[in-house]
Structures are given as structure tokens and as C-alpha cells.
Amino acid sequence: MGPSFDDVEQYVNQVDVDINDRHRFTDGMDDATAYTRSRAGAGMALAAMVCVQIGIALSVGLFDDVGPAGAAALRLAWAGVLLLVAVRPRPSAFTRRGFVASVVLGVVTGAMTLCFMSAVARVPLGTASALEFLGPLGVAIASGRGAVKLWPAIAALGVLLLTEPWQGAVDAAGIAFALSAAGFWASYILLTRKVGDEVAGIHGLAVSMPVAGVLALLIARPDPAVLLTPHMLLAGLGLAVLLPVIPFVLELLALRRLTTTAFGTLMSLEPGIALTVGLVALDQTPDVGPLLGLLFVVVAGIGAQRRGARASALNPEAALAPA
């Protein structure tokens, strides 16, 4: 899946938001104002997640025309064009390390999106999303403090229930693609933090997303006669706006109102939202086992996020530079 809350998380961390200092969000406010802001932030975060999952579900409708890889390439390519036009990244905004990291981030973003779309073509959206979520869950566990051994155990139980290997009907390729996407997502988080420490504003995203689009187009190699039809161009543009442009804006606004701990906990609900969207939009009804498995993954995500907070970036001034 394309860039999610981690882009915004590192951006906010750069302006020295310490997730353990909740008073930074509420200094000078009365309780009612702080409560209103937090509710608004939560609503924006949930809306962003819904946009992401609806965008993925709508991408499934393009599989018959361009395939899973083609649908991913179409969305990434348009998102790259939109960000290039909107941000117009300047060479002066990059150090050599920052530019290289941005390019590598683009490669990882493209690979993550391609793998996830291939997984969605083979397994239900909720299952694919829950398995992919093991990537950020693993990062949160690895960076956590205190007793965190419980969360991997809960997540492992969730994976067993999601995949139900005892049923003998496991789509091995779909699960492999989802787990590959999880690995790329973990790398994406770490690289995003690296880019955030090296590159001001969202210039890094304006480089990484076009790179992801080019990579996806080279791998998918969709038929130009199909890809360049007015219907397909319009569909790609609409999907790019729905994912990642609108979610990025909503997440940025949400993190101005919420601590990253609260935001990360909310984002742990995304597999559940994916299951709901899959049920409504794709008529994917889960059995009891996968439903319980998804619940275990969500619980593990919430627990790990609350112990996996990152300290502020070392270079907070970078985020204050004009984008």
C-alpha cells in the first residue's frame, strides 16, 4: 500500500513533538477545547484510513483491465505526477544521502504496493491488510520498551487464525505476497524516518513517489492502448487523489491534534476497517477464525504501538524549512 501515517509521523516528530509530553498539545487550552481538538483529530485519522481502504477496493475493479500490478502502477504513477507538480522538489532541499534515501524509499514503496495489490487479488482485503500490518507491528515491537513479548505471541496466533493452514485451502501465493508487503512496509517505516531526518518538509515524498510509479510501470508493463484510454486515465487520477493525496492531508491535520501514540493506536484499527470495506464493497464475508485472527492482530498492534514510540528526531529544524 502507498505511503500512510509513517510519512506524517516522521514529519511531526521533526518539529519536536514528544509523544510523552501531552501538554504540548493542550497548553493554553481549556479541557473542552482540547477534547474537541482530539475528537477532530481522531475523526480525521479514521477518515484517512477509510479513504485508503476504499481506494484499494476500487483498485480491485481495474484488475480485469490491467491486472493487480497495472492497477498499482496506475495509481502510483499519477500520485507521483501530482506530487511533482504540487511540491516541485528543489535540488537544494537534498543532501546526497537524503536524495539517495528518497530514491531507495521510492523503490521500497513501489515494491510494497505491488506486493499488496497482488495479495488482494488472491486473498480477502481484511486478511491481506492484517498480514501486511505485521510489518509496522514488528517495528513497534522492536523499538518498544518494557515487556513486549506478549504482542508477538498474540500476533502469531492471529496469523494462524487468519490463514487457517489446517483447512488445507491456503492461497500460498496470496499469503506470501502479503507477508512480502509487510516486510517492505517495515523497511518503508525505517527509510521514511531516515528521509525525514535528512530532507526538509515533504520533498522526499515528491521524489520517492515518482520513483515508485516508474518502478511499478516497468514491472507491470501495462498495455499502453489500455492504460491511455480516457476512462483509465481518469480512474488512475481519481485513485491517486483518494490514495495517497487525501489521506496524507487528513493524517497531517490529525497529527496536529493528536499525540503520535494516540495516532498509532488508531492506525492499528486499519485491518478492521479493511475487513469492513471488503465486506461492503467486495462482498468478502470472513469466517469466524479469520475474524478472530484479525482481532488478535489489531489488539497486538494497539499494545505494541503504545510501547513502540519513537523519540523526537535529532534535527527538528529541518521540518520548519519551506516545502
Outline of the structure:
This protein is mainly alpha-helical and 323 residues long. The chain has helices at residues 5-14, 31-60, 63-87, 96-120, 125-132, 134-142, 150-163, 172-198, 203-220, 224-227, 230-255, 260-267, 270-282, 288-305. It has one domain.
**Total of domains:** 1
Computed over alpha carbons, the radius of gyration is 19 Å
Query: How much helical structure, as a percent, in the residues?
Result: over 70%
Number of H/I helices: 14
Specify the oligomeric state: single chain
Order of helices and strands: HHHHHHHHHHHHHH
Total beta-strand segments: 0
Mean pLDDT: 81
Query: How much of the polypeptide forms β-strand, as a percent range?
Result: under 5%
Low-confidence stretches: 2-26, 308-323
Shape: globular
Characterize the main sheet.
Answer: none
Alpha-carbon distance between the termini?
Answer: 24 Å
Structural class: mainly alpha
Task: Describe this structure as you would to a colleague.
By secondary structure, the chain is mostly helical. The protein has one domain (5-320). It is built from 14 helices and no strands. It has helices at residues 5-14, 31-60, 63-87, 96-120, 125-132, 134-142, 150-163, 172-198, 203-220, 224-227, 230-255, 260-267, 270-282, 288-305. Helix 3 (63-87) crosses helix 11, helix 5 (125-132) packs parallel to helix 14 and helix 6 crosses helix 8. The longest helix has 30 residues, at 31-60. It starts with a helix and ends in an 18-residue tail after the last helix.
